[in-house]
Design goal:
It is a single chain. The protein is α/β, with parallel strands linked by helices and 288 residues long. The chain has a single domain, classed as Spore Coat Polysaccharide Biosynthesis Protein SpsA, Chain A, CATH 3.90.550.10. It is built from 11 helices and 13 strands. Strands 8-11-9-10-12 form a 5-stranded mixed beta barrel. Strands 2-3 form a two-stranded antiparallel sheet. Helix 3 runs antiparallel to helix 4 and helix 8 packs across helix 9. The mean pLDDT is 95. The structure holds 1-O-phosphono-alpha-D-glucopyranose. The site of 1-O-phosphono-alpha-D-glucopyranose (G1P) has 15 residues, from strand 11 and helix 9.
Length: 288
């Protein structure tokens, strides 16, 4: 069955970026000139997905406005003859069909995904976490879809992380069945280094069969007192096979300041209009 819908949880507080996120959304922080959420939506669209379901919360209006038509801005650009910019702005609102569902309380990623149950219905769907930005010619979601199309089971994006970092991720283990594709058998959310089953970390890209909703409905609060998506995946794995796919490309963890800064530098260096001046500037700064 075709994957047509992607769920993007965006209700978090973004506490690691306070005070910048006190009155605006973490997902609107820009990498050069596009907000993080734009990259996440592109990741879905480049996988052929055409409905984006945002799980929002209070204070997230900027995301809705971003993907809507901005009448005043478009009028202004038209009056100024800035046709190319005008076209770009209109294209953002036409990228996909956007749906918004509120998560009234921040009870965890699993709780957020469960809010999409009625909109998703009885079909497979993607989940994309905007914090994880993946730079690759094939989008992270498309890489998972290619595996889903072969096995028709849930597939999770993976990356090998430094053993000192396992406590920041959902960690899995399993058997490699083809290059970079694993049949998974163990799932632990944010384990201590000594308790981690491996160093294979879950990265914010998932394809799920709709059965995940049944497991989410039964999932109790786990790590950090939140309803964890990883715990629901663990119980689903007792009924259905779950696959993991090592994601190709460079992944930036934009959920923390250092990762966000690294992404900013690299995206600027890959921007044809900024590259040469920015590179020159960086060399000057680093010399001091
Ligand atoms: C979430 C998931 C975790 C996953 C991570 C990927 O954690 O709960 O399993 O490894 O995203 O970025 P968070 O980063 O929201 O704490």
């Amino acid at each position: 069955m075709e994957v047509r819908k992607a769920v993007l949880p965006v209700a978090g507080f973004g506490t690691r970026f306070l005070p910048a996120t006190k009155s605006s959304s973490k997902e609107m922080l820009p990498l050069v000139d596009k907000p993080l959420i734009h990259y996440a939506v592109e990741d879905a669209i480049n996988a052929g997905i055409n409905q984006i379901i945002f799980i929002t919360g209070r204070g997230k209006r900027a995301i809705e406005d971003y993907f809507d038509i901005s009448f005043e801005l478009e009028y202004h650009l038209k009056m100024q003859g800035k046709d190319e910019l005008l076209k770009q702005m209109r294209e953002i609102s036409e990228m996909a069909d956007f749906v918004y569902v509120r998560q009234k309380e921040p009870k965890g990623l699993g709780h957020a995904v469960l809010r999409a149950k009625d909109v998703v219905g009885d079909e497979p769907f993607a989940v994309i976490l905007a914090d994880d930005v993946i730079e690759n010619s094939k989008s992270g979601t498309k890489q998972l879809l290619d595996v889903f199309e072969r096995y028709h089971c849930s597939v999770i994006g993976l990356e090998q992380v430094n053993p000192d970092e396992v406590s920041s991720y959902g960690i899995v283990s399993g058997v490699e069945i083809e290059k970079g594709v694993y049949k998974l058998d163990n799932f632990v959310e944010k384990p201590k280094k000594e308790e981690a089953p491996s160093n294979l970390a879950i990265i914010g890209r998932y394809i799920f069969t709709p059965s995940i909703f049944r497991e989410l409905e039964k999932t109790q609060a786990g790590a950090k007192g939140e309803i964890q998506l990883t715990d629901a995946i663990a119980s689903l794995s007792k009924k259905e096979v779950i696959y993991g796919k090592l994601l190709d490309g460079k992944r930036f963890d934009c959920g923390n300041k250092l990762g966000f800064l690294k992404a900013t530098v690299e995206f600027a260096l890959h921007d044809k209009n900024l590259k040469s001046d920015f590179e020159k500037y960086l060399k000057e700064v680093v010399k001091c």
